[in-house]
Amino acid sequence: MTSDRTLPTADRIEAALAAHDGPWGSTSRVHQVEDLSPGLGQAAVMRVHTTDRNTANQTQWIVKIPGGGARSLLDSQDAQLNDREVAFFRSTLPARLPTGITTPPAAVIPGDHGREWIVMRDLGPALANPWTPEATATAAARLALLHTPVAADPALLDLPFLERTGHHAYAHHVPSGHDNLEALPTDPRLADLFTPAQVRALHRCLDAAEALADRAARLPPTLVHGDFTPRNTGLDSTQTLVLIDWEHAGVGPVGFDLATFVAMHQAFGGLGALDERALLKTYSRALAEVTGTDLADQAEAGFAIVHLTWGLHLRLGPGLAAVRLGAFDHAPAQRSAALEDIRTGCLRALLWAGAAGVDAGS
């Protein structure tokens, strides 16, 4: 794959599938390929439509090529990012997930020209279901089930491929976050984004990054998806939580995944306003059923910390940088939407500063 994300042709995909045993069968013909590659991801992702030459049955598959996409302003410094999802599917973790939560079925790891692919069934219908507040409450309860494999076998958290600092993964953007905040008054597109008092509070939260990472490390750990956002999950017809994109599978504090979902709910098309404290209670009750221990206070701390790390570092670093670099100058409506997400997301994070142990000032 080249840096401009040139995708493999239908013929090449068909040849790669034919060269490996898999649930697609040996008589599948690829007749359509759709590019689904996310704008911020480093993988190439395609929906592949196949037809069986003998039965004429049609099936849709997702073909994912880790590392086959283009770099983005997120500038991940995770050396294992392009290998982790393959390692996840080759591990015992997918099979250990309990009823109520699942990964894409029939995941197979064929190789092509020295690069590993991930081929799995398309879960598009489940992922397309709208994220209403009611659906999000169900997801919060299901999310606690990620702790079930750990409760049964704590040694799973020692698997070498798991990400360890996902909640702190974008802390290298803190300096640019400070710079972007300082530049607000000089940029007419950004001058009214925050009040001076809010800017001072956001600086304090950015300065607390190291202390927040230390606090997170002292919270009870759990298995985390690591990129639990509305684009990477859905509820199927049985209300099972379907999770895709496991590049950031890892170990993190309880409350981590719920915070990333809430942080990106509005930006990624979620419907309605979320009651974050109610969601935390739902998650904590379900977590208590899995662990036999009341971890509500620890879950609240993890949830709050991730708002101030993962959420703020992304918005004030690459988020504001994209606007300053003119990424949306050709589309004023998109720029307005991006700035509104940055503003509301950062203000929402400030509301959790006290719970995270940060004095953000008045």
Overview of this protein structure:
With 362 residues, this protein is α+β, with helices and mostly antiparallel strands. The protein has two domains: 10-121, Phosphorylase Kinase, domain 1 (2-Layer Sandwich), CATH 3.30.200; 125-351, Aminoglycoside 3'-phosphotransferase, Chain: A, domain 2, CATH 3.90.1200. The protein is 41% helix and 14% strand. It contains 13 helices and eleven strands. It has helices spanning 10-18, 81-90, 93-96, 124-127, 133-143, 148-152, 174-183, 196-207, 209-217, 256-265, 276-291, 296-324, 332-351; strands at residues 28-35, 44-52, 58-65, 101-102, 111-112, 115-116, 118-121, 221-224, 233-235, 241-243, 250-253. The strands form four sheets. A four-stranded antiparallel β-sheet has the order 1-2-3-7, with helices on one face. Strands 4-10-9 form a three-stranded mixed β-sheet, covered by helices on one side. A two-stranded antiparallel sheet has the order 5-6. β9 and β10 form a beta hairpin. It is globular. It starts with 9 loop residues before the first helix and ends in an 11-residue tail after the last helix.
Distance between the amino and carboxyl termini: 51 Å
Computed structural class: alpha+beta
Q: Which descriptor suits the 3D outline?
A: globular
Q: Rg to the nearest angstrom?
A: 21 Å
Task: Give the count of helical stretches.
Answer: 13
Low-confidence stretches: none
Strand order of the largest sheet: 1-2-3-7
- The CATH level-2 architecture of the largest domain is identified as Alpha-Beta Complex
Name the helicity range.
Answer: 40-55%
Number of strands: 11
Q: H/E element string?
A: HEEEHHEEEEHHHHHHEEEEHHHH
Q: What is the typical, i.e. mean, pLDDT? A: 92
